[in-house]
Write a structure and sequence with these properties.
209 residues; mainly alpha; globular; Very-long-chain (3R)-3-hydroxyacyl-CoA dehydratase; lyase; EC 4.2.1.134; Tyr_Pase-like_PTPLA; membrane
């Protein structure tokens, strides 16, 4: 039952992020101006998807359904929710929400990362043969996607700071101290993935010997 549930969860999550990637590419082709200030909350679907993933994956870790450490999950969720809830939802008029270079960049980084990750687990849980190329991609794409996400996330917060400071001065102080935490948080996640990559790929090579 647990494997069936996780297979369903990962399959649904992969589809959700594929939908997000698809619409991001359409937005980029249209100049990324599908949202304009004063027309509601931008990126609603991505906000809902990330809240869904963050909530369920925290519970999965707490109840031992997956081996992912809770600090790793919290760091990933914290960084993304600062953007999606703290900026898209709280400050929808921020120009950073529809910047083709920063917000589109972080959307690409997040969605491609999640499509690879959830797709990999679908193959693994579904007892399909996982090609080495997919395994390698799962544990190597982060070398590019994580730094891209870091730069774009930081730029999105920075470009929203002036709007936040004028509207919510106390919240702007929180972001002022939260933004520097991106660096140690990024280093923790990056080093964690490097260690995981070494373990998994080494184990896979040993199977081939």
């Amino acid at each position: 039952m647990t494997k069936s549930y996780l297979l369903l969860y990962n399959g649904v999550s992969a589809l959700l992020w594929t939908y997000i990637l698809y619409h991001c590419l359409i937005d980029i082709s249209n100049g990324y101006h599908s949202f304009e200030p004063g027309h509601g909350t931008p990126h609603k679907f991505m906000i809902a998807t990330q809240l869904f993933n963050s909530s369920f994956e925290f519970l999965h870790s707490v109840f031992g359904l997956v081996p992912t450490p809770i600090p790793t999950l919290l760091l990933q969720s914290f960084a993304r929710l600062i953007i999606l809830v703290g900026i898209c939802y709280v400050i929808p008029e921020s120009p950073a929400n529809y910047n083709i270079f920063t917000f589109a960049g972080l959307t690409l980084a997040w969605s491609i990362t999640e499509i690879i990750r959830y797709g990999f687990y679908v193959l693994k849980l579904g007892k399909f043969t996982v090609p080495y190329s997919i395994l390698w991609l799962r544990y190597s794409a982060f070398f590019i996607l994580y730094p891209l996400g870091l730069v774009c996330e930081s730029a999105t917060v920075y470009n929203s700071y002036e709007v936040i400071e004028s509207r919510l001065p106390r919240y702007s102080k929180f972001l002022k101290y939260a933004l520097p935490l991106y660096i140690p948080g990024f280093l923790y996640l990056y080093s964690y993935m490097i260690k995981q990559r070494g373990k998994v790929l080494r184990r896979e090579k040993e199977k081939l010997i």
